[in-house]
Design brief:
single chain, mainly alpha, 6 helices, about 0% strand, globular, transmembrane helix, membrane, transmembrane
């Protein structure tokens, strides 16, 4: 990995933290199941797609989520665990199911917000004991939130792809 790639990843992580706080706060206003993740999905898809397209190496999403997770560890260790695990799962799915990484990066980066929802759900329900908007009792709301999260992540990824293709 080149110095410019590492610098770009660092700047991207700082943008994810800074702008992500805005999306997270807006999503917290609504009391719908998974609303924080639904509002963050287009932004996360957009940012992870841009970084993955710019760096063009497998493992970039994992690297970005690991740096993001270590920084967020200062706020909450469980959040950090969910962020890093989401990155691992996203890159594993990309490695297993998408052989042509560079051509399929829009789809791969859209998976990150979905895994963020899923992993956070399990971390909050089973590790911390908090019930994530009581979604454990209504599997249909969880599935619906997952579908919406993936679609919005895909929209964000596609917009990131289009932005980079014009620059």
């Amino acid at each position: 990995m080149k110095t410019k790639d590492i610098t770009f990843i660092g700047i991207s992580v700082s943008l994810i933290i800074t702008l992500g706080y805005v999306f997270y706060t807006v999503g917290s206003i609504f009391l719908l199941p998974g609303s924080k993740y639904i509002f963050m999905a287009p932004f996360l898809g957009f940012m992870f797609c841009i970084v993955a397209l710019k760096v063009r190496k497998r493992g970039t999403i994992f690297l970005v989520s690991t740096i993001f997770g270590f920084i967020m560890m200062l706020i909450n260790i469980f959040m950090s665990f969910a962020i890093i695990l989401s990155g691992i799962l996203t890159d594993l799915i990309g490695l297993i199911f998408f052989r042509q990484y560079e051509k399929k990066v829009v789809y791969i980066s859209a998976i990150y917000p979905l895994f963020s929802l899923i992993v956070s759900f399990f971390v909050s329900n089973y590790l911390t004991g908090n019930k994530l908007h009581l979604m454990i009792y209504n599997k249909y709301s969880f599935i619906l939130a997952g579908i919406i999260t993936y679609i919005l992540g895909l929209v964000g990824s596609y917009l990131g792809y289009k932005l980079l293709s014009r620059i």
